[in-house]
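Dear support,

I submitted the protein below through the web form. The confirmation email said the job was done, but the results page showed an empty box. After a refresh the structure appeared. I'm attaching both so you can tell me whether what I see now is the final result or a partial one.
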Amino acid sequence: MNFFGYGAIEDVEIVLDGAEKRKKVEHRISESKSAELSVYYDGETVSGAVSVGLKSGTKIDHKGIKIELIGQIEILYDRTNLHDFTTLTKQLASPGVLNQSKVFSFQFPHVEKPFESYFGSNVRLRYFLKVTVGRRLTDFTKELEFIVHTLSTYPEANNNSIKMEVGIEDCLHIEFEYNKQKYHLKDAIIGKIYFLLVRVKIKHMEVHIIKRESTGTGPNVYHEDDTIAKFEIMDGAPVKGESIPIRLFLAGYDLTPSMRDVNKKFSVRYFLNLVLIDEEDRRYFKQQEVILWRKADIPHRQGSKSLEESTQRFEK
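What the results page shows now:
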């Protein structure tokens, strides 16, 4: 005999509408595990069905069945520090007795999903559905995570090229130029390096893509730098007047959009780091921030905002 239905629930399953046709991506869900998850966008409706399966010949006395859509930020070095920035609730069943397995439909229309899903070194931002079957002592819960991608657009008129100089007085003068400062995640960084004065014997030059994750606020901000990619752009000594072209394709790397002060919890910024190494293994650096953004690559979906409405437009 199962007191109050304990042990009577065989399984609870959450199935999203149209899941078989929806775009999916591989995404980290824990420190050691990844899963293929459905992708949603800001303003899209999230709907589906919840199946509560009971073991044969059993029933449960429950205090209600509900489903929640939750957007949550978790600081990984402080697991007690959970912040829910979105919580929507639908009641699937009022308190009572469930005598047999049952399927409940649900719908969260035109859900605001303001932030990109993210799993970093010290912080995780995730969206998930959570079903709770209320019971007298211990509730039964089941979760299903999904991914949110934020779309952006930048006017070309406000996407100026970057020009910088690296110099050591009377020894080295290098000028480098990138074609713009803002790149979508499948873009190519195109540029050129000019050697105006070379009295240092340079033997090697690289460009690194650095991701800087910042968590916390005020004096308690913690920065974590991660080198995403390294590109060798020169092997050998340059001469005065020489120029070297740069072409870096971003599509093959694990990049996210740049994120600034997400709900006052964390930021993710990207930098291009030019590294020069001379024959005595001395290193010279020059760093420049670039803005990464996600470009729309999907048709308009039924039950979503128009692409213009769901896309962030930046004028600066």
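Response: this is the final, complete result; the empty box was a page-load delay. The helical segments are 307-310.
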